[in-house]
Amino acid sequence: MQTNSVLGEAKSRSTSDDSAGTIVQSVDRALMILDIIAAAGGVETLNNISSTSGLNVSTCHHLINTLSKRNYVVRAEGRGAYALGPQVKVIASSFNSEDDLLRRAEPWIDRINEVTGETVHLAMMQGDDLVTLVKRDARHAVRVDSGMIGKSAAAHATATGKALLAWMSETEVNRVLAAKGMRSFTPKTIVDAQALFADLENVRKVGFSIDHEEFQPHVVCIGAAIVSGGKAVASLSASTPIMRADEEHLGLIRDEVMAAAQALSLFNGAHND
């Protein structure tokens, strides 16, 4: 059965030798208990948790008490029964939200790419890292190589990054800068914190960010934040080689990127008070 398979894998992870690195035993055991409760349908008794895990009842009880304090486990109806707590739902919701955002953004990314013909990115902050999740290449024969999917330390130098930083507090931005620095990618990269804060203030005023050869020479990029609950959860951008960056084309890129970001923000229930 699938349940037995899940339990077997959980127990195996807890008892197998550590070939990949140091494992904190108490953390591993606590996660195994969550696996066991989940495999039982979300509710399980202390005795069954003990039996399935191979741990004594006292050890299980101490681990469950710790999980309970963090709301990962709660008492359920029935003597000695425990259920998955609300914090598990918070984590699951966060994972599903990112997946939902990618799915909802897909047609808007396609539209920007089709209407402007340019390279389109979707990015978000994960901790102090700017992470590009989606990249749609330009349709033109002459296109920009605007970086790869994945993490970068270029939030201060990119349109996607500055669109996100503009929605963060000064303390949060300073934390990102302290962790990642302000590397100079081109002679036009902003490498002074005060100059960056002035730029971010302008982003907040006009509603979009611009990277004018700050990340790559001869490349202009315009970005806008996707907002949910008063916070930027992601950003969209489109990049063009400077040879096509006349006022009309940049206006088209700006309008398409902003329209997509605003539509996705409204879908997320953004509060822009």
UniProtKB/TrEMBL annotation:
It comes from the Bacteria. The keyword Transcription regulation applies. It comes from Rhizobium grahamii. Residues 24-86 form the HTH iclR-type domain. GO terms for molecular function: DNA binding; DNA-binding transcription factor activity. It holds the Pfam family HTH_IclR. This is IclR family transcriptional regulator. PANTHER family: HELIX-TURN-HELIX TRANSCRIPTIONAL REGULATOR, ICLR FAMILY, HTH-TYPE TRANSCRIPTIONAL REPRESSOR ALLR. GO terms for biological process: negative regulation of DNA-templated transcription. The keyword Transcription regulation applies. Keywords: DNA-binding, Transcription, Transcription regulation. Residues 87-270 form the IclR-ED domain. SMART domains: HTH_ICLR.
